[in-house]
Amino acid sequence: MATKVKKMLFILSKATLDNVYAAFIMANGARMEGIDAEIFFTFFGLEAIQKKKLEHLHVATVGNPAMHIPTMLGGLPGMEAVATKMMKNEMEKLDMPPVGEFLEILSDSGVNLWACKLAVEMFHLEKKDLIDELDGILTIGDFYNRVEEEGTHMLFI
Question: Does residue 119 contact residue 43 with C-beta atoms inside 8 Å?
């Protein structure tokens, strides 16, 4: 007999707009279904919770097969900005909140938001550089210890 999902732990390692929204939408969806959710921001995923960077995230056009454009074209000046603007326009049509507002919504709904201690140190960040909604800075071991019960699943994005 399968165990019902009780908690979702998301690890976000890249702050491209598509990865950030994927993690946020899945965490929000979990909460809407009564499932506990947490997001661990590590390496470049930290940009999604840096006060100065979170509203300036982009869509990756190089090395992204879902873009359906040759890598060489994706690397042309301005392509990333065009793709980002197009994606933001489509998200706005669907009433998707901007990153900062979405983080507030997630926090208010009970999603725990964690920064990776190693990555924070590696990028010479301080707690004051990160969003106020952050629940704390954890080692990866501390994050793994958050798998407290059967029915907890971890997803790397």
Answer: yes
116, 41 in Cβ contact below 8 A? Answer: yes
The predicted structure's pLDDT at residue 112: 98
Domains and CATH numbers, the chain: 7-145 (3.40.1260.10)
Strand partners, 89: none
| Separation between Cα atoms, residue 88 and residue 17, nearest integer Å | 9
The pLDDT of residue 85 is above 90 = no
For 86-110, the DSSP string reads HHHHHHHHTTPPPHHHHHHHHHHTT
Q: Name the residue among 135, 140, 144 with its Cα closest to residue 119.
A: 140
Task: Say what the pTM is.
Answer: 0.87
Of 11-15, 21-25, 94-98, the poorest mean pLDDT is in 94-98
